[in-house]
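STRUCTURE REQUEST FORM
Protein name: HTH merR-type domain-containing protein
Source organism: Planktothrix serta PCC 8927
Requested output: structure tokens
Priority: standard
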Amino acid sequence: MFQVGEVSRRLGLNPQTLYFYERIKLIPSPQRTVAGYRLYTQEDIERIVFITRAKSLGLSLEEIKDILVLKDGGELTCQAVYDRLSQKIQDIQENIHKLQTLHDELLPLLEQCHRNFDHPDPTHQCIVLEKD
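Status: completed
Returned output:
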């Protein structure tokens, strides 16, 4: 059994993160000592490591919660993981497309601003963001 401080040091997490995971039910409420200190099992630590790994892959806490429900129910099949990762990849591709579109819209504005650096009137106001 491990206390919060030890778990947070071992995993490189802020103790508040562990409390938050407990509050949103990503991890079950740990056992407590008579004095009220939380005690985490090795199984709890493995679950937190799983959550940390999933977060590092860009999964949201809601997506992780969905996967953990399947895992807890013994229904985390490769098909289930495949479906969720495929959706995540599709979401990432959509975000990349949106960001590329935004980049392409901003670049001409940046160039227009740069052209106006040497405007003869030093009080000239930049209006590139006001145009349609």
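Reviewer notes: The two ends are 62 Å apart (CA to CA). The chain has two domains: 1-75, 77-132.
Form closed.
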